[in-house]
Amino acid sequence: MSLRRNLFAAISRLLCSIAALFLCATAPAFAAAVPTSSHVVVIMEENHGFSAVLSQMPNLVSQGNANGYATNYISNSSGSLMNYLWIASGSCHAANGTCAPTNLPSNTNSFGCNGNDCTSAITDPNIFQLLDNAGISWKVYAESYPGSPTSPDNPPYYRRHNGATWYAQILNNVNNDQSKIVDFSQFATDLANNALPRYVIIVPNGNDDAHDGTLGAADTWLQNNIFGPLLSKTYFQAGGDGQLYITFDECGGGTNGGCDASVYTTIIGPQVVPHTLSSTPYRHENLLRSTLEALGITTFPGAAATARDMGDFFGTAPTPTVDLIDDMNFTCVSGQCFGTLGHDTMTQLDGQSLRADFTPGGTAFAALLGDTTPAIDLSAKTNYALDFWANISIPANSSAVEFSMIQNVGGFQFAFQHQCDFQGTKLWRVWNPAAGGSWVSSGRGCSVFGSGWNHFTLAFWRDNTNHLYYTGLSVNGQFFPFNLGLTYAAIAGSGTTSTFRIRTVGEGGTNPPGYTMWVDKFKLF
Question: Which of these, 417, 403, 410, 411, lies nearest to 381 by C-alpha position?
Answer without folding.
Answer: 410
